[in-house]
Amino acid sequence: MKKDWFMNAIFYELYVRAFRDSNGDGKGDIPGVIEKLDYLKDLGVDCIWLLPMYPSPLKDDGYDISDFMHIHPDFGTIDDYKRLMEEAHKREMYVVADLVLNHSSDQHAWFQAALKDPSSPFKDYYVWSKTGKEYADARIIFLDTEPSNWAYCPEVGEYYWHRFYSSQPDLNYDNPAVQEEMLNTMRYWASLGLDGFRADAVPYLFEREGTNCENLPVTHNYLKKIRRTLDMEYPGRILLAEANQWPVDVREYFGNGDEFTMAFHFPLMPRIYMAMKKGDPAPIRWAIENTPAIPDGCQWCTFLRNHDELTLEMVTPEEREWMWQQYAPDPKMRLNLGIRRRLAPLLDNDPEKIRQANAILYSLPGTPIIYYGDEIGMGDNIDLFDRNGVRTPMQWSASQQNAGFSEAGQLYAPVIAAAPYAPEQINVADQQKDPQSLLNFMKHLVRLRKERPFLAKSSVQFLDTTSPATLCVIRGDETHRLIALHNLGDNSTDITLPSALQFIPKVELLTGTAIPQGLKTIKLAAHQSAWLE
Ligand code: NOJ
């Protein structure tokens, strides 16, 4: 392993079930992912993040795990998994997978044992109450489906605690046996070659009366223990935190460099959409200026979309309302505190906007993550339940037969069928051939970014320009300087480069356009970005 390989890297998040079906049963599988590794390598991906592929009734798409130590039979076998690690590593790619610490499925043998025999030691693997009234200050996360964090269990005659669906009982971290079981889960997958973990829902591990049961010191202590164990037994593996929290609270998950290696940057993501819709750089500037410094050896993970709803937890209630009006005009597009749409439909399927959103993300610090399908501008299906609409089969080709995803008659979910996102319009094969495609733009952007490691970490300065709708980002260190100009407005604009930035750029990097010597004014079309070095 190269030291700090994750620092200047490109991550790619994928659902095994949605990516490629190798055996014609209508569901994607691990051998299917192996078939597509060369595609990912060619895109410039350094690390694949696999969403949960463990045995599960799939009521929360695999985040409801019924056996932490196996592979779901739909997705393959342990041998397939080992082969995936080998094949990825052969191509100098890393793989991380979800470590779902907070809860199990109610179908897990531990929970089932508790139901059968409430005096069994497994009952204490979960959190119970006789009244269902404790921890009243903890918010409900799945607001649209769950009326309470407590669910009554008739077999036991008590209530059990769950932060997500009631089919996902929370594990009891006050029980040392649970702590050890989950360390063993992590050890097991690391021993099979996994390069790290995306740790799910980490703020909620412990509960304490009188608190909101998030980000508690005892939770941080346990997470530090996880990190110590990993460092000692599997040095070099990474831990990526899913902590959807305000900057000051997320900062705690890095500890003194002794907790998480990486954490998602939740506050930045919605502000990119906000800034682009308002034609105002202020929200992005706010997010970056309020990003706390993190310890050496740590990194942010930045993203535009993922497999969940576009969460609006990290904005004010007024901003949330505004975002819903702007980006989710149809109430069906809303879910919990977010928006269940993909990148391309959110940005009006406008190539300039889609490119700009990415160009903004890649001009800021952090390690960017691509959500599968967004590199070709896939659409969504809001008629599907919950978040399933952004988890449809990957569109590999224009083929009438399931877009090249599967040869089966019946799929786990329908391929997007409606124009302008149907496979005839949006697919990998056609975009590979078209030099102007989004896919080829993404490949170019990924390369630009990786060739400039200073972009991953160096300081950020913002500059006011003569164009109020333009976000001007200056990045660099002693030897490099990159200026990214993003016209967020719906009209073209002329930007006079400030005299402090006297230099003679030769080429605009995103388009490869030559720039005349001595140019001091740059014209940017609506939602056009320019990178000058
Ligand atoms: C966060 C995951 O991203 C989401 O998909 C899941 O439903 C919850 N955690 C519960 O595991």
Quantity of strands, as a count: 22
Helix content: 25-40%
- Alpha-carbon Rg, integer: 23 Å
Provide mean pLDDT, rounded.
Answer: 96
List the ligand species: 1-deoxynojirimycin
Please indicate the percent range of residues in DSSP E strands (runs of 2 or more).
15-25%
- Number of H- or I-type helical stretches: 16
3D shape: globular
SS-based structural class? alpha/beta
Low-confidence stretches: none
Largest beta sheet, briefly? 8 strands, parallel, barrel
Summarize the structure.
The protein is α/β, with parallel strands linked by helices. Helix content is 27%, strand content 16%.
Q: Can you characterise this structure?
A:
- This protein has 533 residues and is an alpha/beta fold.
- Helices cover 27% and strands 16% of the residues.
- It is built from 16 helices and 22 strands.
- A hairpin with a 4-residue loop joins β5 and β6.
- The chain is globular, with a radius of gyration of 23 Å.
- The model has no long low-confidence stretch (mean pLDDT 96).
- The structure holds 1-deoxynojirimycin.
- The site of 1-deoxynojirimycin has 9 residues, from loops.
